[in-house]
Specification:
heterodimer; A: mainly beta; 4-stranded antiparallel sheet; B: mainly beta; 5-stranded antiparallel sheet; 11 strands; 50% strand
């Protein structure tokens, strides 16, 4: 079984659209994260959630909003997509905040 | 902001030992140093984690000096399958709970 799964794997959309990326972990972890990896392969944290409470909120545009219906899920909603949002987005989870993380396979978002 | 620095790339040959160093001047007192490996089109994968001195597991060793302002990932006897990008992850004292990945080191292992 996949520990951290993301859907979809690929997402191609037009500027201005609203899209969501889903993430689920079956490890029973308390903390989940979202990262953005740009074309230069820099990995930057966007959000993390611990027991349904946001504990990191980096300087990302408010068009991005994480939503956690339960401890096993952390979905990423993006409104009014822009060209600069094109990147690979990774979901991750860890047993506790700052513990080592398990990453999903990534969602490649292309905004046209 | 804390700056984490890694070499951009390294070359090695099969069977050699490879050491990759990460500089992290503003590491938080209570934070661990974690290294990840990433293959193309995959998410990063945990390799090793440590706080100070030396940690060893079945795939790597991690050396951390007393001041903890740097760390060195050591891969013994690399193989072609170790060709990947290696990232270090540490805490940031400038902002609580801010996790900073290094820029990654692209390791190429040649036959």
């Amino acid at each position: 079984d996949t520990a951290v799964s993301q859907t979809p794997k690929y997402l191609v959309t037009q500027m201005g659209n609203d899209k969501s990326i889903k993430c689920e972990q079956n490890l029973g972890h308390d903390t989940m994260y979202w990262y953005k990896q740009d074309s230069k392969k820099f990995l930057k944290i966007m959000f993390s959630y611990n027991n349904k409470e946001l504990i990191i909120n980096e300087t990302v545009p408010n068009r991005f909003s994480p939503k956690s219906p339960d401890k096993a899920h952390l979905n990423l909603h993006i409104n009014s997509l822009e060209l600069g949002d094109s990147a690979v987005y990774f979901c991750a989870s860890s047993h506790m905040d700052r513990d080592f993380q398990y990453f999903g396979a990534g969602t490649r978002l292309s905004v046209l | 902001l804390a700056k984490t620095t890694q070499p951009i790339s390294m070359d090695s040959y099969e069977g050699q030992e490879v050491n990759i160093t990460c500089s992290h001047n503003n590491i938080a007192t209570n934070d661990y140093i974690t290294w990840y490996q990433q293959f193309p089109s995959q998410g990063p994968r945990f390799i090793i984690q440590g706080y100070k001195t030396k940690v060893t597991n079945e795939v790597a060793s991690l050396f951390i000096p007393a001041d903890r302002k740097s760390s060195t990932l050591s891969l013994p006897r690399v193989s072609l399958s170790d060709t990947a990008v290696y990232y270090c992850l540490v805490g940031d004292t400038d902002s609580s709970y801010k996790l900073i990945f290094g820029s990654g080191t692209r390791l190429l292992v040649r036959p």
